Amino acid sequence: MGRVWVMAAQSFVTTNFGVLYLAMGVASLGFMFYIVFSDIGQIKLGDVDAEPEFSLLSWGAMLFAAGIGGAVVFWGMVEWMYYLQNPPFHIEPFSEEAAAWAATYGMFHWGPIAWSIYLVPALPMAYFLHVRKHKVLRISEAIRPVLGEKLARSWLGNIIDILFIFGMLGGGATSLGILVPLINEGLGGLFSFTPNATSQIAVLVGTTAIFAVSAWRGLKGGIEMLSDINMWLGLAVLLFVLVMGPTVFILDTGLNSIGLMLSNLVQMATWTEPFGDLNGFEDTGFHQSWTIFYWAWWLVFAPTVGLFIARISKGRRIKTMVAGSIFFGSLGCALFFIILGNYGLYLQLSGTLDVIQVMNDQSANAAFYAVLSQLPLSWLVTLAVVILLSIFTATTFDSIAYILSSAAEKKLDKEPARWHRLFWAFTLSLLPMSLLFLGGLQTLQTASIVSGVPLLLISMLLMVSMVRAAHYDLRFQPDYDEPEINIEEFPENDPWTEKGTWELPDEQSGEPSKS
Fold first, then answer.
1. Highest mean pLDDT (candidates 59-63, 123-127, 411-415)
2. N or C end of the chain, less CB within 10 A?
3. Rounded to an integer, what distance in angstroms lies between the CA atom of residue 242 and that of residue 346?
């Protein structure tokens, strides 16, 4: 009965708040363009002589692994199957136009708007952590310029932080709910056994062990290393599929999909199917089932990924963090959809394998491995994909554990304590483990989406907070000509504290006070 109520709540949210989610997606992308091309984008995250902690490739691999995880491997392979059967814009299913949109919509849902939503909390958190040196990694800390210090540290700030933690738990549980059965089925096919509860527990224990060791080693020795392995192993798998598969078809369809997405981005981002069920018009519910759900899902997971991006971006300019996150994130997702997805689409359209029939008769997991089985050296490819999925799962949970332990500490100097990271690593695995066998994973995922409705307002507050704090600090700096801005002058009392004011002292004389 509880699950029925939660599903009804999800339907209510996507139906009645859908337009707000779509507007939030467009606003997030527009806000990132504004940040990149404004003076705010020139601000350096850190001191004048601060250097990036991680190389550009490692930084890109870390944010991609934390933000997407192994889910992109799965959905990159199977998402087009749903779109070809039930395409958008009232297109005839299984038609040539439906095939073109099926190859395109996955990249859209996992593209620039998704990463812009992630960056909304990342921006103010990075600013307060690295520029203003506030050693507290919490969402409530990032909205102080809007709410004020007293309100942000009251019950309201606590509720905001609790919503953020609930979103992380829901995101982590859903990642396990998708990836553990997928890894389990892959191992069953590789070693000729029937996947069962025992093998599923073994997979959970194995992935937990990987991210527990990584959590113990910290950012550089753990998450960075696993992310680099992910990047190179993922690229190797994609390159193999591209070379051994229908290379020309994959590249042609990929380029066509990029063009189709870019030329229709505004339409895809704002399509609400307003005339459905009126005057006999068809109501497909496509935008509610896919676009609105995805935007709601990215928004729920945004504080987690945003805080992680903020933590690893010290030493870079704000515009580099924004442009780099959107570039690396969107490119990484697009590669999986273009290569894996279009290979499966080729098998379907050429008549080599009826992938959709396999999915409808068995499961999406069965269709996933059925596609891989058509490749040369399929056993080796499947093994590489299972390893990739396992490391992706470990990296995602490791990142969540790192952020949770960071947020729970009163003052973050360098890294959270090892015991603290391990505590959250095992806590994060135990909750989804129990839910996995109690059948509550989908309920938790849906509940986290529903509870994310207040994040619509919080995301707007975060945008205002970023602009308000940065503009105030910029006005406090002496005239600058350098392309890189270093925030060095601060007022004695921050304007959002009880003693502070938004009025600049000695503004007419141009002599700011120094702390």
1. 123-127
2. N
3. 12
CA–CA separation, 251 and 242 (whole Å): 8
Contact between 216 and 381 (Cβ < 8 Å): no
Residue of 384, 390, 373 whose CA lies nearest to 189 = 373
> What does the DSSP assignment read for 390-447?
HHHHHHHHHHHHHHHHHHHSSS-SSS--HHHHHHHHHHHHHHHHHHHHHT-HHHHHHH
Quick one: fold of 7-475?
Amino acid/polyamine transporter I (1.20.1740)
Angle between helices 155-191 and 197-218 (to 10 degrees): 130
pLDDT greater than 80 at residue 27: yes
- In whole angstroms, give the CA distance from residue 484 to residue 493: 26
Amino acid symbol at 453: V
Radius of gyration (Cα) for the chain, nearest Å? 23
Residues 250 and 342 sit within 8 Å (Cβ to Cβ): yes
Residue 340 tokens, joined: 């894996």
Backbone phi and psi for residue 485, each to the nearest 5 degrees, phi listed first: -105, 130
Phi/psi at 91 (5° precision): -80, 150
As a whole number of angstroms, the distance between CA 73 and CA 341 comes to 9
User: Which tokens hold the place of 479?
Assistant: 């005239």
Q: Which residues contact 425 (CB under 8 A, 6 or more apart)?
A: 208, 211, 212, 215, 397, 398, 401
By 3-state DSSP, what share of the chain in percent is helix, strand and coil, each rounded to 5? Answer: 75, 0, 25
Residue 44, helix vs strand vs coil: strand
5: Cα separation from own chain's centroid: 27
Per-residue pLDDT reduced to its tens digit, 442-500: 665 666 667 678 888 989 999 999 999 998 888 887 665 555 677 878 888 888 888 88
Residues 99-142 have pLDDT tens digits of: 999 999 999 999 999 999 999 999 999 999 899 988 767 788 88
Q: What pLDDT was estimated at residue 514?
A: 45
Delimit the domains of the chain by residue range: 7-475
Rounded CA gap, 329 and 120, in Å?
15
The sign one gets for the Cα dihedral 391, 396, 397, 402 is positive
Phi-psi category of residue 494: left, alpha or beta, with phi > 0 → left and psi -120 to 50 → alpha: beta
